[in-house]
Amino acid sequence: MSSPARSLVSSLTWWSRIFWEFVESDFLTFAVPNTIFGLIGAAAGSSAGLVAGPDPSPVDILKRYPTVLLFNAYNLLIFNLANQRSPESIAEDRANKPWRPIPSGKITPEKTRQALVCLLPVALWLNYSFNVWNEGLLIQLFSWYYNDLRAGDSVFRDAILATSYGLFNLASLRLAIGPHNSVTHRGHTWTALISAVILTTMHIQDLKDQEGDRQRSRKTVPLLFGDGVARLALAFCVLFWSCACASFWQLTWRSYALPVGLSGFIAWRVLTKREAREDARTWRLWCLWHSMLYAGPLFGRA
After folding, report:
1. pTM for this prediction
2. What is the 3-state secondary structure (H, E, C) of 124-186?
3. What tens digit of pLDDT does each residue of 39-61 get?
4. Burial of 59 (0-12, 13-18, 19+ CB in 10 A)
5. By three-state DSSP, how is residue 293 classified?
6. Cβ neighbours of residue 13 under 8 Å, at least 6 residues apart?
7. CA 106 from centroid of its chain's CA atoms
8. C-beta of residue 37 within 8 angstroms of C-beta of residue 169
9. Backbone angles phi, psi at 180, to 5 degrees
10. Torsion of CA 207, 209, 215, 221, to 10 degrees
11. Residue 161 and residue 145: Cα distance in Å, rounded?
12. Gap between the Cα atoms of 130 and 172, Å rounded
C-alpha cells in the first residue's frame, strides 16, 4: 500500500473511532431503541392500525433495517458533536463523563466544530434522500435550539428531548414501512404516547449526573424540585405508563407482565438505590423498559 493510501486509511480509522466515541454512550440506549420502534411498528403493520397500505413483508423490513439504524446513528452523531463541544459541556463532562473525546484530549472543540460543519450538509442530504426530510430537518432545528441556544439548560430541556424522540421514532417507522405506505392517525398517536413516556420519565438520566448539572446551573428535575421529589415522580410514572400502554393496546396480563414487573423493579431501585453508580444502572434498566413498551403493537389489538 502506498504512503498516501496508508495515510488515508489511518485518517479514516482515526475519525471513525472518534465519531464512535462521541455516540458510544448513547448508541445502545437511543439509536437502537428508536430503530426497534420503527421495525416493530412496521412488523405489526395494519393489524395494529399503525400503517395505511400494504403490509411490508419481513424480508422488506429486514432490508430496511440498515437504513433505519443509519438514520438514527448519523443524526445522533450530529447532535452529540454539537452538544459536547461547548465550554459548559466540556466542564460537565470532566465531572460526569471524563472518557469522552474532548475532555480526554483526543480532539479539540474547534476540530469538532469543523467536523460538524462538514457532516451537517451530508446529514441533511441523507434525510432528503431517505424521504424523511421533514422529520430530519426538525431534528436538526431542535438540536440547534437545544445546544447552540442552550435551551438544554432551561426548563424546556425534557420537552425538547421528548419531541426529538418522537421525531426520531416517527422517521424510523416511516423508513421501516417503506415509501408506498403511510403512518396512520393511530401510528401518530402511539408515537406521541411514547414521547409522553419520555417527557415524564427521562429525568432518570439526570439522577446520575447531578454533580455536573449543578456546576453548569442546568435546570433539571432533580435540581429544580429536589432529588426526593424527582424519584417519587419517576417511580409513579414508570408504573403508570406501563399500565397505560398496556391499556392502549388492550394487552392480556401475560403480554404486559414483564414490562410492568420491570417498571416495579425500576421504581424500587429509584427509591432505594441512590448512589450515582446505582443510578447509572437503573437508567440502563429504564432504557430496556421503554424499549419493551415498543413491543406493544405486536401483541395488541387496533
Report:
1. 0.92
2. HHHHHHCCCHHHHHHHHHHHHHHHCCCHHHCCCHHHHHHHHHHHHHHHHHHHHHCCCCEECHH
3. 999 999 888 899 898 888 999 99
4. exposed
5. helix
6. none
7. 25
8. yes
9. -95, 0
10. -30
11. 11
12. 11
